[in-house]
Queue: 3 jobs
Job 1
Amino acid sequence: MRLQRTHLYSLAAAAAFVVLLVAGDLFFDSFTLRVAHLCAIYVVLALSLNLVNGFTGLFSLGHAGFMAVGAYTCALLTMTPEQKEMNFFLAPIVPWLAQVHLPFVPALLIAGLVAALAGFVIGAPALRLKDDYLAIATLGFAEIIRVVLTNMQSITNGALGLKGLPMYSTTWVVWPCAALSVAFMVLLARSSYGRALKAVRDDEIAAGAMGIDVFRVKVVSFATSSFMAGVGGALLGHLLTTIDPKMFTFMLTFNILLVVVLGGIGSITGSVIAAFGVTILMEVLRFLDGPMNFGFFETEGRPGLRMVVFSLVLMGVVLFRQRGLMGNREFSWSMFSRAGLLPRPVEGKDSRA
Amino acid sequence: MTLPLLLQQLANALALGSLYALIAIGYTMVYGILRLINFAHGDVFMLGAYVAFYCVALFLLPWWASFVIAIVVTALLGVLLERVAYRPLRDSPRISVMISAIGASFLIENVAVVLFGGRPKGVAVPDILNVKLAFGSVSIMSVSLVIPIFTFVILAVLLWVVGRTRTGMAMRAVSTDLDAARLQAIDVNRIISFTFGSGSLLAAFGGILWSYKYPQLNPLMGVMPGLKCFIAAVIGGIGNIQGAVLGGFLLGGIELLTIAFLPTLTGYRDAFAFVLLIVVLLVKPSGLLGSRQVEKV
Amino acid sequence: MLRTENVTMKFGGLTAVSELGIEIAKNQIVGLIGPNGAGKTTAFNVITGMNAPTAGRVIFKGEEITGLPRHQVTRRGIARTFQNIRLFRELSVLENVLVGCHLAMDTNLFAATLHLPSYRRKDREARAFALELLEQVGLHGDAGELAVSLPYGKQRRLEIARALATRPSLLLLDEPAAGMNPQESVELMHFIRRIRDQFDLTILLIEHHMQFVMGICQKLYVLEYGVTIASGDPAAIRQDPKVIEAYLGVE
């Protein structure tokens, strides 16, 4: 494989990234670090939603459900028997879960697989539906999952949730996950399978006529997306160290949808940038929910003002700049050379096809 | 399960079914015309209840005046919603419209949280609705009887408008084929506004009546009913008004009677609607009263 | 090569196609003509598996393919173009054709994403084939362009190239000459004959363009309101009073 100039740039960027991680881990205070980790997790979540909504063109609103499945699975597998006993004081945990105690990485993978299974089970019926109906069906499934989780006292501890989860979502866990997600999506997008996904998105009927098993492609895409969502949910759970069914409402799906729409549906780069942007903005705007002092006047912030801002942002984007930040374009080093920041590439080395 | 208890539950189911029907109609009308799920419809329902509440609590108006004002205001809000969130996107891909709908819904909910406060508010139920009526050993609150009666009257009016007036005919034309309707010199925008307005009007009716039966308001009170009522509309056959009514009653009935007979399932109450939805979508996606739509290649 | 037996297609109360019986021999170029709404595209849809017929059978290369899902039909060797061009709008010209190659590549998500050696080899072969096809239709220079940015005539050619990428034995063309001037349609006639010889194809086409049809088809079937009112060689069809009546109305 020839070492093109662009590959060198990418390697340099990767190295810089690792250096940043080390520095951040050493110097950031725990709060900033937490926000940073949240950004990484949102990258994973946004990409998983983008896979099914942006690449395959299926409007799925059930993401929170798969996140919940992943989070609960991972939590129940990684909690020690003592922690479980402490949590399940209302009704004891089912015996076959009581003694299970796995290290984090296997638990994470299992969580993803269970979520993928859920995606497969839900997708098989739901993906036969079109557009709006798919959206409502997936939303419905997410709600069913939530209601079930709230009621299965002896497995999930019901509405009380699970507290005291081990804080496994550290720098060297979440950021590799984020990086892997990005790498996966980029490779997929450039492959023939990625083309098949986009073909299904652009014109299902023509795709079928070209020999693509449309239904199968949809299910595979959906299950893969659910896997990633499950992993993201698990990472989230182990960052916040507590999970309960009320966390996984439609509002959570909305947040991720916001990221994807802002970044540009179908753009990996957009999702990454927007994940950072929205997560940081969420934290920064937290002040809106409490009293504000602008120096020259004080206002009582109101809870919910933050979400008002985000709703306005979402609507603004969809009404005025539908394509979001990146449209469906991707990052490439040639952007910098076009802007004059990097030397221009030699003719013939830069082609789209 | 004693007979008096069963009759009581039936009365409740009837009332709940009526409320669901009122809200479901708004969904089905909008979907029939614009092929759009108006996610914000449930929040319009909530707004109707709140406007009525504030008319009484803040402006000290009598309940019937608040009722009328709230309905009118909410209908106008529905028209405004369409103008701002949906009309600019009429030629855009469906996904954009849906995102706008979701955004509008969240916006309304959170503005409500900011304006009204997140804590539940108690509604002052008008006296005549607070009467405990006794039929032998069965006791039913008057509100539970008034609601279905009200609903049937409203429905009769609506069906008359849709079936017998020119506006109604125009509505049906637009919902069958928007472009063809335009060619028939029908002012499509006006009809769409009318549809949103009347759908929101019905939702406001539903909201206020709901607040009389379940007298606690909170800004997110429209979320679950909204979702369930869309499901009711789908079950009955989306785009079909009679279907929405049927779906609403069916859903309300199933929800309450299942819990009445199987109290252990009370926690799963909200899931019934979704399970029913998925069953219907798999078995007969066009709904009970709906008709199949074929896509031309 | 292809045979249909009494294929009938009803949509609710409407009978779009009634008792269609066509027979196409290998390497023939056959035309399906008739006034608008005669059911020609519906016939295509039934043959390619878009719709399962209400009655009747479709037999391809001696095997029954009635009711097979459309991607299976394509795998058996039948490809088509569409009346309203259905290109993949967000993909480039080359990528559109490559989608047609996906079938032959027969990979799964993991092999493709991980760029395993087996995948890379197939990808190279597919690209070479795709570029060659583009050259055949004269679109080689537009390979990197967005498919929908091409002018109409080129888009039609791209659709044909994409269909050819699936390596069909039978090619169905839905109004390939639509919107073309006389010179372009003559070029198209040559082109179709050329690809028929080069790729060993059999061709069934729908067209309204009478000169084109008469010039290229060896056999014609005439449909009106779903019913086959005439069939045979073009010269005879031209004189057939029923056909004239169908197109021009009763005098």
Note: The two ends of chain C are 39 Å apart (CA to CA).
Job 2
Amino acid sequence: MTVDHRHPSADDPRVMLEDESELYEPIPPYAPRTEREAEFYTLGDGELFINIGPHHPATHGVMRVVMKLSGETIVDLDPVLGYLHRGVEKLCENADLHHTIAYLDPLEYVSSLFCEWPAVMAYEKLLDVEVPRRAEYIRVLTGELNRVSSHLLAMGFHALDLGGLTPILYSFIERDEIVEMLASITGQRMLFNYFRIGGVNGDLNHEFMSRLGDWMSRATEQVEANVGLLNENEIFVRRNRDIGVMDAETALRMCWTGPNLRASGVPYDIRRAHPYSIYPEIDFDIPTRQEGDSLARYLLRVDEVKQSLRIIDQCLHQMPDGPVMAKVPRLLRPRPGRSWAAVEGPRGEYGVYVVSDGTDQPFRFRIHDPSFLHLQSFGRLLPGKLIADWMTVNASLDPIMGGIDK
Amino acid sequence: MDRALKSRLEDRFGDVLAGPVRQRHDETEIRIEPGDVPDVLRALHDEPAFGFGLLADLAGVDTGETMQVVYHLWSETTPDWLRVMAINLDRESPRVPTVVPVWPGAEWLEREAYDMFGIVFEGNRDLRRIFMPADYRSFPLRKDFYLPDDAARSPGGGVRPMEATHAPRNAAAGTVRKVRG
Amino acid sequence: MEVTRDDAAGLGTGPADATAMGSDQPGNVPGALVVRDATAVAAPIVVRNELWSAADPAAYDGGRPSDVTHLREVEASGIAARDDARWSGILEVIPTKADYVLDLLRANSLWPLLSGLACCAFEMMSSATSKNDIDRFGMFPFRASPRQADVLIVAGTLTTKMAGPLVRLWEQMPEPKWCVAMGDCTCSGGRYKRSYATVEGIDRVMPVDVYVPGCPPRPEGLIYGMMKLQQLVKDRRGHWPERAVGPTVPEGV
């Protein structure tokens, strides 16, 4: 059915779509182009397709999943991405080095500082800039605050996707407080644009320290109270236990990183495996769990929040005085070459690969996002489970579509 | 910077390396021809002396004259990141064998490289577009992507012509930005 | 480089256009720093409206170009307080008391559709949760189904792939409906204006009533935008009957 949109009726806004049929059909309107597509889009006996998304209340963003179901049991899944693809890598190729940092913020928007961090590290390697120690401490401090906020939000959304409407409110209270703290030094509640090549944009100030002090004094009990809602909730535990089990070997082969990998038993954390910044001087543990199910991923994030609070505490006590920005020329021309840097973000390894041609624009700016690879594993974790289990696995993997789609 | 890693790589892969092993800060870089990609990466993954179990990234690069596929690997045996660059892919029809048998997680990374550059990964069972719509005709991250092409058909009404925004500054229209190495 | 131009046709028409040359390039004069007399006013860039016409020919001063060029003159003349854009068509009748009550009901229980696409969604959720509570305005239920929603708050970048589904959502919403463009990306394309895959502002594909700029706008900013929307509802103004679809930012800017 095609509607001629060049002559809109009185009820239709002017829409520049040519064929609307493709918007409803889960099956693409062309012959399958790959083996996997052919295999997926042929229906067996008693199977049907359901299209989930791209607009759906699971708040991880705009993602579309085509599910092949037999009754309510998932037979196979095909995630369709790209609904938030903004062309960031191409935009960064035409931007100054400093502008690229601002382009990176909206990728993983709940943990923006971790998006900026590998870029500034890669540039600092290309420019051979040494970052002052106070700037490194501030980076770690604000980064860990961002990690706490991101994990608490992940826990809140985990519960929200399963139907619990209360924990998200508690998460947002904590997130609002942390974000106001960071706004007092960065100027922005969300897309901070705080890290610079050679340091950070501004020093800590009184408002930040007083807010941080208030928050730290009750952070531990607050986090305990918030997670206490869920840890022993029978519905939550039964919906999460043994759902989406990923073993260590397969997780490594599927290029998983971050809390999802550590919940499957592999104690890989870039902060310890490939230390950067001042993490060697800070004492913290790497929580690891062996079960690999959704409940383990949730509990691991709780443990990581506690470790982050330890790190913040040590940063506050050990912070040296000094400049917060190295002396870096305004017009930066890095040497021609290639540079890779990766940090441990709340979702995993966040990496940036920069190819420089000697001008002040990066020649190739590659962003590696961890959630991209986590989503790939739906096809391994979910066949044989119910649709509700897809929701659980999706929430426990904690994807952020801004980063996935770039 | 791990000097021992450099000598181990030269001993093991000396005959297939297409250039010297370079090291800078905490990265070690080797270059290989695209046909050697599955053997070298499988060796790096399986052999216990190397043990590069984690594929950190798979990226395509358009240098303006050739294409490259760049793999970043991590191993517990060395404190360095290892960068494996498959160089000298033909820019008009780039083809590289896939590493999906070693890391099944590379399937989507290869899809992304195909979507953005047009690099065909031979052996990938699912090489279709991942970010752009399935009927998109161009490869956006190529250096000659200046045309409005498919954007004009989009519901957005067509963005401005790319010549006004993405052409290199102070350069004639149609020049392709190049890089050495 | 000329800063004052009288013709709008020269804007953004090619690679050598003045607006495309970076002011930090050697040889280019940074246009904004041209020193002028402090009381001089640059000639305004006037782009004639060819997209739509108001149903009431007397609206918007009858289409006369404005002869007021400075903000203090605008404020002194009181033009801003006199806005003639009213709903037309079958709603031309003078609103009765019943209509007034209906408008109050609509304004105080605007149910948004969950249309959080990207980062602005988080500030929208933050405005919906405890600290900045839009439940006190009646906007708590973020409906998942467009059939039950009043206002579409588009929060986040609209990409060309998502434009189709989003317009479909807008079409599925029953009238009366309003649209709020939250965030820079939906107002004008934002920081992704030069990208190959984004729609430069949702007003290219759907009529927008309230623009809330910011990247992302603070929750207080969104609440201010929603209160403006409530005022719009009570004044019976809005774009959806007139179907004013088209870019509000002139080409080339």
Note: DSSP finds six helices and four strands in chain C.
Job 3
Amino acid sequence: MAPSNELSLDEIRAYLGSQAPAVRPAPHVRAYREAAAVLAAIAQPDRLRPLGDAPAGAAAELLGLDLIPATGAAFDGLVMLAPDIRAATIRDLAAAGRIEAALAANPGERSSPLQAQLERYLRGAAPPLAGQSLAELDATLQVAVWLAGVLDTVPPVAEIEARAAYQRLLAPFETLAGDAVFRGRHRELDQLRSYIGVIAPESALERVRGALSRWTMPDRQPAVAISGIGGAGKSTLVARFMLEHTRLPEDQRIPFGYLDFAKASLDAGAPVELSLELLRQLDLQFPGLGLASGFASLLDSWRSGQAGGRSDEQPGQAHSVLADILGILGRVLGPRPYVIVLDTFEEVQYRGEERAFPFWQVLSDLQERWPFLRIVVCGRAPVSSLRLAGRAPRRIEMGEFDDGAAAAFLDANGIDDPQLQRDVMAKFGRLPLSLKLVASLAARTDGGAAALTGPSASGLATVSSAEVIQAELYARILDRIADERVRRVAHPGLTLRRINAALILDVLNEPCGLGLDTLEEATALLEELRRETSLVSLDNDDGDLVHRADLRRVMLKLLLAAAPAVAKQIHERAASWYLQRPGRRSAAEYAYHALNLPNFADLLGPAASVGLGASMGTRSTDLLEDKDIRGSVQAAIEEFPVAAQLWLATRGLRVPDSVRALASRDQQHASVAAQVESLLPYGESARQEAEQIFASAYESLRDYGPGLRSSARSVLGWADRAASPVFQAGARLAAQRGDDDRALELIGQGLERATRDGAADLTLGLLKERAWLVRDRSAAEQADGLALLDEHARRHQDEAAQLQHLLQTISISQVRAAGYDRSVLQEVLSRTTADILWHLLPAAGLAVASVTGWSADDESFSATAYVALATQLAAVVSTPPSPFRQAAFPDPGCQLALDKVMQARNRLAHEPAPYPRAQEFLQAFLRLCKTWPYRVLYVAPPEGRRGDELILSDEE
Amino acid sequence: MLTRDERASVQEALATALASHADARALLKVIFPIQANSILLDMPAAATPLDIAAFTVTECLRNRWKSRPSLLEMLIDYLVNVQLNIGLSGLLDRVQAGIDPNPTPYDAAWLLNHSRPFFGRADLRGQARELIEQNGQPILVVTSGEPAGEAAGDSAKKGFGLSYTGKFFEHLEDCSPADLHVLPATISAGSGPTYRIEDLLEDLSAQFARSDPPPERTGSSYPDAVARWLLRQMMQNGGLWLVLFDGFGQRPLNEEVRLAVEALAQRVTSGQFRRRIRLVLLGYPHALPQVESVEILSEELLPAASVCPADLRPCLTAWDELRRSRGLSGAAPDVLDGLARELVEQAPPTGRVRLQHLNTELTKLLQKP
């Protein structure tokens, strides 16, 4: 029994019983439910009138949890009936024929478009889906979520979704190039029409072919590359081209795929995802063919694979399903062209076009089987690496607008008078950038465009080069900025690509003579500049203002001509400013400004880079090896001085042909070697591309022997017998394709020249390759190769070469018998970084296998004795910056093996009892070495999705 | 780690030190020789000494005792031994001893100032702690045990209480000394097609003390732009942010909203954001593209039938303690045991109504005179 001052169970029970909720009379509840069920949402629940007898103003009380918040502005209300209650109530109302009565109860709540669509379905008066706009389809979908299966008039959710998805696929084409906005570009459209061969040039509605039965299997064709500056209308052109094909009658329509790489979700290095997106789009275009069933299971397995780990069968599956579906299309529709458009391809190019090679391979294989495949690639620079039908892409360069396109452009930018448009074209030409500048200037000029073209328009050149016209227009735009300080921030301040208040205060204040004292003043100035939307745009990521890229080149020319010393001062101050700030964005801006300074090589070269990456928080000790920063530099390459561009070319970045032509012999060779290295990680078709680059460079280096031809070449000064990195590049390519003899031959040639010229770096590089190449040859050859490597490695204090020597030595069994094994390996690992281990991975695998006596397939080994080794190895692979955390192999088997290494590393790091985890880790490590997809000892880590880095579970 | 008052004292002492130093950021490198860079990485560019102090203390509290010595110890050590804030020396001893003065909010039986009960959910409590205090897995997905694509039902196997989970995180926000901000957005059942990305932006932007104008639609992906905008608002507002999406797993769902959720999930797992942002998805049985499973914590709700008297006992114990603390009569342990048994026996056997009944009965107890 409870003490007197304590609560008893009876007392609590009695209290709870006394607090029972009030009963809701069922007829009253029903009356309110019937009134609410026919309303999409209720704006004023307290004024809701029940359908039948019930107390007024009691909706909230009587409906209680039946009412849920109306989330979404389109509901145009506060609350609505819960979907299950709505469905049951509507079913009853329809059966009783009381829908109209329910609607009549609350006319004041029936004003939204969604309500109108609901009522159409309640009354059975909705138009067919094919006749509904996208907005109507969205409303229909909402109605179907509530009432599909309740009312016969409401179509199934899946059917509405498919129809809306198809319209969404076409929507960007309509927006960009619908009849109301598109004009001109006749020549380029005709080129595209001819390529596809369905619509005759200049006759958009007249088909080349007649009946369906006359589709004939076409020949394979190379791709088409459309290029031009930003704003030239590339995307608009392809949009129009796609649109006119989608408007053909169904029996004449061609299937298409549209991949816009401006979308972060599309990754050129992920051919499976791209293939799946193409499949999805095909299914939307031809819903009657049931294509979705062919790849639904693949899609499911890929999505779950992404969440739970990859399967190495998926890429093959994806390609094979895509090929099968093209086969179905071919059988059902005839061999009509299947057009794939790759838009905004510059996004891929900035990060390295070589990443697209695995996808190129998919397209090439597909076209081999189905010749009707047609590829159109749009980007600022023409794509060069996609070879279909054995040929480079045909080029369409988007230069000047024609009259129609120029008029449409001016229309869209507020200059809509036809005569004025003609005057503008006559005075300023029809280049897209010139017209954009004219439009910007007109918007700031009293009298608009007429004031720029009329007799009073003084000072603007009438007959001049496009460059001069653009520079003058830009200068005029700057003149129109009323506030002097804002004008100075715009020019020369926009030497900076990005501007924020701190940069204005710390970097621009002095060189631009702004006279600012506080951050608040700088912030106010920034706000003023923000209004100059024709010059800058806001970066939503960090709030910085960003100079519009298309104007930048015009401005830089102006700046260099007018105030080179100020520009240099700003670059210097900006480089120092960014150097103090961690983060990859800062690192990218640091690199940008450093490359604009005369001492760029000192600021960014290997010596300066030691520790720079780590201190700025980038993914590589060398800034230019960080993919994001490299992409940023590549995107701006033409903004750097020629000397910097040539230097960047030796690091594997792409420069314009006109600049490449200025390169010295050594720069050209270094550039070739760097290009080969950037292609090697990306599979067979990338290797073939590299072979071509090598072959043309090697031609100038060939030694024609002691004969007459060679003598003649020497006499004529054609023979190049100096040391060159091209030999090592060629040897690596030969080794990668399995021709070790040719590789050794090239190494021999390279060594002869390198030793003769005293090129120590080249010699050591070649010796490393040779030592690895002879690993399976006779003991004498191995010993010879390793001895030479050892000698040079010691002489030049090259840590990586010394470690390679040690690892390969460990892997020779006789040495192990001499007791040279585990402690030496652990000593090697204690000196190794993740980067070095990556570059020696297969050799490390051999050494681990030799020391432990295990192989990747051996499930029975015991790791008891090797916990320390596993822990040490795991620490090396995971310590940043680590290529093991960034790499994403095009080869799925190897990627799976790498994933398992990192997963095992995580478990080893967290497991209190490390023994089984050590075994798991070493096993995963050996499997990775076994599946290593390269025959050469190392390649640069293939880039992951947009350069992402794996974060480990125990890290900040 | 620190009580709210203690946090304010440490913050103030650090702000004073920063204000008297010519280069505030350089001072952080003195206090945290190795870790300063990772703290500075996320710090807003135009921060005042007070902002920097608040940001730094938050980072120290979030780090707890993960590093040796802990960041908080390094900070207080500097304030005591260099800045001579002798008054903080007691804190230094306690931090060095690894003592946290705060009761753990993760075990709470009543939420939001004892206004509503929260029973069971042992998995969630552990996962929430890991989510908030660690950086390894920045996403938590709570599901009802119902596979993706199946119609909502009231089956006996399904778990209930998804939306109620949000109250738990609001409670953690109230109790956390580490400057936790919960940013919820909800889509009611069956509203997926009509809830637009603009609705999402409005729901979220209204909750920031200061925010930039919403992103404009341009040629590039708007859902990506919205995700980036949202991340930026959180990063520049300081503290640890927990975005809580309820109802976003329903299908069909507006495509842009779905893509924004996926873009956000993808981005919060990247280095710069995982330190400061968490994502909780209530009722989201779908895969998250480009997010590795290792990034995701998960809780599957148990069927309502599984609630047993032991689940209710912590609520009743806390209720009893609360009454006694207010000078009201309490109940003996055996009475509480009996009450727990009776409440469970009298509740409907399965489904949402079982949980609703138990919640109602427990809440009624709060009003007992």
Note: Chain A touches chain B through 76 residues (CB under 8 Å).
